[in-house]
Description:
Blueprint: E1 2-3, H1 7-18, E2 28-29, H2 32-42, E3 46-49, E4 52-53, E5 56-57, H3 58-68, E6 73-78, H4 83-92, E7 96-99, H5 104-115, H6 123-132, H7 142-151, H8 157-164, H9 168-182, H10 187-201
Parallel strand pairs: 1-2, 1-3, 3-6, 6-7
Antiparallel strand pairs: 4-5
Amino acid sequence: MIVDDHEVVRRGIADVVSAADGLEVVAEAGTVADAVRRGGLLRPAVALVDLQLPDGTGIEVIRALATSSPQTRAVVLTSFDDDDAVAAAVESGARAYVLKTVRGAEIVDVVRAVAAGRTLLDERTLTRRRQAHPDPTDQLTASETRVLELVATGMTNRDIAERLGLAEKTVKNHVTSMLAKLGLSRRTQVIAWVASQHSTTWR
């Protein structure tokens, strides 16, 4: 099963996997709700799950499938390269964490390996990543941290400005600076990043 909210990406991955001998795409989903429903019904051997979905995160999908379809092995397939997201994937039970920059053949290799029972993620890998990459939020000012928290709830710059009593332009500047310091480019990445933090720290 392929879970990704971008239809073009989803179809591209489906074509690559379907073309491989012995592999079949039994379902596609673009939301957490869809993935949980279809996964529970069809019980796929492997679920390729994006972290960023319109109604939640891929971590929620993985945790739900662990109950409704325990035989399904999850692979996180995302453009979001973040240590805390990797940690959340490990704790939720994902067997692999793959970036979308990989080639199609590599996705097929990962699916085959995970279907065969292998785990391509472990705590040692996670520890090495954490040691190599310090916490990026240490660079944020108090104002940027507050803006980060509100962006993560889905609030617009105007909403945040009203909440904090700031000019909308000031909020926009805070958002731009915060994204740069975190190495992100979009607000949706902030939402996924904070969700992954909550999955690991406040579970």
